[in-house]
Amino acid sequence: MFVSPAFAQAGGDVAGAGAGIVQFLPLILIFVVFYFLLIRPQQKKMKQHRDMLAAIRRGDRIVTGGGIIGTVSKVIDDGEILVEIAEGVRVRVHKPLVSAVLAKTEAVSATTAGPGDTPTSANTNAPNGEPGKGGFKKFLSGKKD
């Protein structure tokens, strides 16, 4: 009436070593599909983002991860940039948080600047034209020159 355990365990060595590979074949196939549909495109996207960050230089218009649009004023180091988001308003941004570069600037060579050309500051809001004075405080008070 009851089936003996000997019959239930029979056939353990009938299939051999090939049965183990056949059992793992669907799992291997799923991994291959995930690699080509998810992992590989994500790695390509990360490489493009890394290359974009390496190519950022002064004058580029960027969008941060928070959606703030600004112009790169200075590349401080490999991980940080100074971005001007309004006239006279500069913020330090962690470089990996830059999500896109809207406009690239051409590389400035030493031969393009003329002999009388001098760099000017973007913050010339002071009454006497001195850079760095006035600026944000003047903007908040609403005073005009």
Question: Characteristics of this structure?
Answer:
145 residues, alpha+beta, five-stranded antiparallel sheet, 5 strands, 32% helix, elongated
- In total, the number of strands is 5
Strand content: 15-25%
Radius of gyration over C-alpha positions, nearest whole angstrom:
31 Å
**Mean pLDDT across all amino acids:** 77
Contiguous runs where pLDDT drops below 50 for at least 5 residues: 113-132
Residue share in helix: 25-40%
DSSP helix count?
3
Could you tell me how far the N terminus lies from the C terminus, measured between alpha carbons in angstroms?
106 Å
Structural class: alpha+beta
The SSE string, one letter per element, is HHEEEEEH
The main pleated sheet reads as: 5 strands, antiparallel
Strand order of the largest sheet: 4-3-2-1-5
Sum up the overall morphology in one term. Answer: elongated
Explain this structure to me?
32% of the residues lie in helices and 22% in strands. With 145 residues, the chain is of the alpha+beta class. Strand 1 (61-64) and strand 2 (69-77) form a beta hairpin. Mean pLDDT is 77; it is low at 113-132.
How does the SSE layout of this entry go?
Blueprint: H1 5-8, H2 18-54, E1 61-64, E2 69-77, E3 80-86, E4 89-94, E5 98-103, H3 136-141
Antiparallel strand pairs: 1-2, 1-5, 2-3, 3-4
Q: What's this model, at a glance?
A:
By secondary structure, the protein is of the alpha+beta class. Helices cover 32% and strands 22% of the residues.
